[in-house]
Amino acid sequence: MSTTAVPDVAVTPVGAGFWSRTRKVGLVLLALGLLATVLFGALATGEQARFTLSEDAAGAALKVDGTVGAIVFGLITLAAGGTMFTGLPRQWFIPVLAVGLVAFVLSFLCWQVSAAPAGQNFMPLVNIVRGTFLLALPLIFGSLAGVLCERSGVVNVAIEGQLLMGAFSGALFGSISGSVWVGLVAAAVGGSLISLLLAVFSIRYLVDQVVMGIVLNLLAVGITGFLYERLMQTDAARYNSAPRFSNWEIPLLSDIPVLGPALFRGNIFLYLALLLVLVIHIALFRTRWGLRTRSVGEHPTAADTLGVRVLGLRYRNVIMAGAVAGIGGASYTLALFSFTKNMIGGKGFIALAALIFGRWSPSGALLAALFFGFADQLATYLGAINSVIPGQFLAMLPYLATILAVAGLVGRVRAPAADGKPYIKG
Amino acid sequence: MEPGEIHALLGENGAGKSTLMNVLYGLYQPDEGEILVDGRPLRLRGPSDAITAGIGMVHQHFMLVPVFTVTENIMLGAERVRGGIAGFLDRRRARSEVAEVSQRYNLRVDPDAVIEDLPVGIQQRVEIVKALTRDVDLLILDEPTAVLTPQETEELLTVMRSLKAAGKSIVFITHKLGEVKAIADRITVIRRGKTVGTASPEASRDELAALMVGRTVRLTVDKAPAAPGEPVLELSGLFVDDDRQIRAVDGVDLTVRAGEVLGVAGVQGNGQTELIEAIMGLRPVLAGTVTLAGQRIDGWSTKKVLRAGVGYVPEDRSVDGLVKEFTVAENLVLDIYDRPPFGRGLSLRPDEITRSARERIEQFDVRTPSAEAPVGTLSGGNQQKVIVARELSRPLKLLIAAQPTRGVDVGSIEFIHSRVIHERDNDTAVLVVSSELDEVIGLADRIAVMYRGRIIGVVGPDTPREEIGLLMAGIIPDATGGPPDAGSVPDIGPTATVDADPVAVTDADTVSGSGVPATTDRDVAAITDGVAPAAEGTGSEDEKDR
User: What DSSP designation does B460 have?
Assistant: First the structure.
């Protein structure tokens, strides 16, 4: 007897598939390219747009004629959109998208810089890069805290509160002890305390994790606000004048053009953030701890049946996350400003957005945080050159980008499967 | 348990088999009693203790992380690491261990494949390899055949035999008698949490079934020959995606006539769920048409489809069929609450609802304390009767019943089956989807076998089980000559030329006699197999409810 096995064929395509994701994104890029080429090209002036490479405004710079730059970069975006629209291999999707978007931003900058008031037709790249990292710092720490928590299956909406508590305890104990290091440790402990509450209530008492996170944010605002008024303001010299970490210059690396002065003459927090991204990324994907953490975030029952202590691991990760976010909060009070009420101002929520935009990976979160930091920095710059574009538009970018990411326009975003689900044994 | 023994644990759903084994695996703590290993009492505080004691378990719902590779899943919990405290994973060593074990026991798996891309049969193999790499002496297999095709089941039995030859002991939990008889050395039957007897594999199926169920039951469905009339439901070139945007229904053509039961057989997850949901308007139809009594209904809202005369018994009653917190009476009018006599203007009329509920509770033999009891407090069988009562209380052109007796006790199965046949005799077209072949064979006048989103054959109810089993595995017995008939299987493109002629397929001569032992005895299996893979949970819930 002979038999026929049904061949393992790929599914039969259905006609309705014309508007694939690539096509839609391609169309958006085409529209952006058109906007850039025509509008930015028309609005740009013949002034030279200069992108200065050193701290000196008159020093070496990349120069381009405003109109020419705006049009050329606009055309690049158009080309990227066109390529995408006519179809391209999967692995090219992200690179082409990146080229298109970067070219669009450059076209926009050519217009803005060339149309700036006379004498201000330059963009100080060092400042921009430095500012980008500076503004991204709390986002990097915050989103790393999110990665640690959510990869093990606990949603961390309390990042804002953890940052705030870290900033506060860093300032308070740094001031009292007069030591930056004591302040740093106190900041980590402060962030962990918020985390501990999150862990106990969501892991032990199964309270909804999102609700708990929001409550903790409000709690942190309340406690720090109260102590700020009752304690810090009564004697600011004693309680709210923490010493600050000085900048460390890294030999050799600090001589690299643009990146050197922007990145390698920074403070400990900048180095710590980059180091943590690297360490957590490697740990998450290469070590036993990472494998177990991810298994607990994806399928805790499976992990349990193999002898992994699900709840213990979750506790540990959530508390570590608090420490990381706490240090992030201290990057304000132990390096830049003294503590003020509610000084985090929503950065914790943008960090949450960066976490999602970065697809729950440490390196993704870093890139997302930098992107958001750049948007923030650009808004400041546009304000300084009296741009017609209100900075608030750029302030919307992180949220807009996150909505697009969650809607699946920039690749599939998939949270850890057990994220937010309490594990009940048996 | 003796070393090198295969011990079958037989019992109905909810009899306590899985619970017992979870205790043995350290997942649950016993309230009383002790476990003896080699004569010494063993206290298990968790699965890791069980693993240390040499006990491994393959769970009914696989304990595999879908986004991990085979190697990652196998190494989890027992990782080989380098670099001291940092604990870097030694993937190369883990991979070679996986390869070694899978070679030794002849269990082929690709160490680098990602679990979610693998078919269930292979996933199960990964589970077995996972246990074997932990050097277990005792392997517990919890309902391992529930999600397998007959051919995959046969392979599994071969694997079990070779494990036995290697000196491993196996506890084999099942409710399928054929498999037990084919492989077990000793059989323990469990009912309602108690051991009710041990038997040798020589015991007859009837004896075993009686032990398991506790009474002798009638297993066949009585029905007169069908008198099919006009086509009521016609599907043509239907394409539907599942939740992950993967094609689930891949060009289905199907006709159900008035006064006949069309059974859709197939292993779970071959597109049956999506097919039904597409007909009901619960899932978008990508291409093709759905016609109800000459009227196109694809693209209609579910409410409109229901009101056009379609009754729907959904696959998962607790999710799609009932609002558990609502009362029996409320659940009985979920479909027509806004129509007279139950609703008037903006308000409901509770008296009417209660009155009609009492009537239907009587009529459909729903065992409930009152019409006001929350439906979630009823047993699975009675919950299902509430759904059936609701759906059959409207004038129907078409009844769609998906897994109508999953997780339902034997008495209710008989009742529900008889109501379905009764509905057919009233000239309603009936579409029954079930992953239990015996239910399909018992009810259907024609059987369509679904495989990978396609109907790969439509056969009569007298077709031998083995043949249907082969079809369920995607193997089509070759037609013995004659041009292919386009009647039952649509030609879906150059890649999938399926030459199936309904006549040829039903021709028993073309099928080899080597059937699957598990599936030869239809009569008994109709109840014992009567509950599908995912039903263990619902089953034990029944226990609780009583």
Answer: -
Mapped onto helix, strand or coil, the DSSP state of residue B449 is: strand
B89/A288 Cβ within 8 A: yes
Q: How far is CA A182 from CA B77, B390, B507, in A?
A: 37, 69, 85
Please answer yes or no on whether B451 and A298 come within 8 Å at the CB atom.
no
Q: Please tell me whether residues A158 and A44 are part of one structural domain.
A: no
Q: Are B386 and B378 in contact (CB under 8 A)?
A: yes
Residue positions counted in chain B: 546
* CATH classification code of B310-394: 3.40.50.300
Q: Could you count the other beta carbons within 10 Å of the beta carbon of residue B165?
A: 10
* pTM, rounded to two decimals: 0.74
Q: B66 at the A interface (CB within 8 A)?
A: yes
> Is A417 a domain residue?
no
For A162, the domain range is 126-406
Determine contact: B88 vs chain A, CB below 8 A. Answer: yes
A interface mutation test: which of B25, B28, B44, B76 has the most A CBs within 10 A? B76
The CA distances from residue B478 to B183, B484, B493, B496, B502, in Å, are 31, 10, 19, 15, 11
Whether the CB of B112 is below 8 Å from some CB of chain A: the reply is no
Is residue A421 domain-resident? no
Q: Are B75 and A308 in contact (CB under 8 A)?
A: no
> What b-and-e string marks burial along B19-46, b requiring 16 or more CB atoms within 10 Å of the CB?
bbbbbbbbbbeeeeeebebeeeebebeb
Residues from chain A that touch B76, judged by Cβ atoms under 8 A, are 291-292, 295, 302-303, 306, 308
Of B65, B247, B477, the CB nearest to A298: B65
CATH classification number, B6-213, choose in 3.40.50.300, 1.20.120.1460, 3.30.559.10, 1.20.1600.10: 3.40.50.300
- Write the CATH number of the domain with boundaries B220-305+404-463+465-510: 3.40.50.300
Check if B453 contacts A (Cβ < 8 Å).
Answer: yes
In a domain, A144, yes or no: yes
Flag whether A412 is in a domain. no
| CATH code where residue A140 lies | 1.10.3470
Nearest CA in chain A to B63: A302
Q: How far is CA B165 from each of CA B6, B147, B158, B365, rounded to the nearest angstrom? A: 10, 25, 11, 51
Sign of the CA dihedral running A201, A207, A210, A211: negative
> Which ipTM did the prediction report?
0.83
* Domain end call among A86, A115, A144: A115
| Closest CA of chain A from B16, distance in Å | 14
Q: Work out the number of other CB atoms within 10 angstroms of the CB of residue A333.
A: 26
Total count of domains within chain A:
2
Q: What is the pLDDT along chain B (546 residues), one digit of tens a residue?
A: 677 788 888 776 556 676 777 787 877 777 777 777 777 777 777 788 888 888 888 987 889 999 999 999 999 988 888 877 778 888 899 999 999 988 888 888 899 999 988 888 889 899 999 998 988 888 989 888 777 777 788 888 888 988 888 888 898 887 777 788 888 888 888 876 777 778 787 777 667 766 765 654 445 677 888 888 899 999 999 999 887 677 889 999 999 999 999 999 887 778 899 999 999 999 999 999 999 999 999 999 999 999 999 999 998 888 888 998 899 999 999 988 888 888 888 888 888 899 999 999 999 988 888 889 999 888 888 899 999 999 999 899 999 999 898 777 777 888 899 999 999 999 999 999 987 777 888 899 999 999 889 999 999 988 887 788 778 877 776 544 333 343 344 333 333 333 333 333 333 333 333 333 333 333 333 333 333 333 333 333 333 333
Interface contact B493-A12, CB threshold 8 A: yes
Q: Does A303 touch chain B (CB under 8 A)?
A: yes
Decide if B114 touches A, using CB distance below 8 A.
no
A167 and A205 belong to one structural domain:
yes
Q: State the nearest Cα–Cα gap between B49 and chain A, in angstroms.
A: 8
Residue A20 forms contact with B (CB below 8 Å): no
B29, B65, B69: best mutation site toward chain A, by most A Cβ within 10 Å?
A: B65
Same domain, residue pair A37 and A131: no
- Does the CB of A1 have a partner CB in chain B at under 8 Å? yes
Domain assignments of chain B as residue spans, ordered by start? 6-213, 220-305+404-463+465-510, 310-394
Residues of A with Cβ-Cβ distance to B75 under 8 angstroms: 291
A293/B contact by beta carbon, under 8 A:
no
